[in-house]
Amino acid sequence: MKEIIKVKNADYSRYEELLLRRDRLRKEAGILQGLYIREFGDLMLEIFESLVESHDLEKIIKPLTREIHLFDSFVAGTSHLEDPSVLDEIKAGDKLSLQREENKYDSNAILILTADKQKLGYV
Fold first, then answer.
1. How far apart are CA 63 and CA 54, in angstroms?
2. How many beta carbons lie within 10 A of that of residue 66, not counting itself?
3. Residue 3: is its pLDDT beyond 80?
4. Which residue in 47, 92, 121, 122 could disulfide with 109, CB within 3.0 to 4.6 Å?
5. Helix (H) or strand (E) segment spanning residue 97
6. Do residues 22 and 30 lie in contact, with contact meaning Cβ atoms separated by under 8 Å?
7. pLDDT above 60 (res 2)
8. 99: nearest Cα among 117, 83, 84, 81
C-alpha cells in the first residue's frame, strides 16, 4: 500500500517554476548546439579537406571512399518554395546537404539544400 506524505508549507509553485526553467534551458541548449554545428561544421570540413590535399593523405583516403546508395525519398514542401525555379535547375549527380531545422510544423523535418544553399524542401 502506497502512503501519501503531506508536507507543510511546501512551495510547489517554485518547484514547477524550476522545472519549466530547466525545460527552457534544455531547449535553448539544443538550439545553440544546432547553430554551432551549422556555423562550424562547414569550416571543419574545409580544414580537413585542405589537410588531406596538402599532406598527400588524399592518396590514402580516396581509394577508401565510394558511393553508397542509401535510400530514395520524395521531397516534401516543394509547393511552398519562395523560388521554385531551383527545382528546374537541379539534376542527377548534384550534391545536396541535409540539415536539421527548427520547424513549427514538424519537429522531425530535415531541410534539403543545394550546394549553393538553396532550399529544395524537406525529408
1. 17
2. 6
3. no
4. 122
5. strand 96-100
6. no
7. no
8. 117
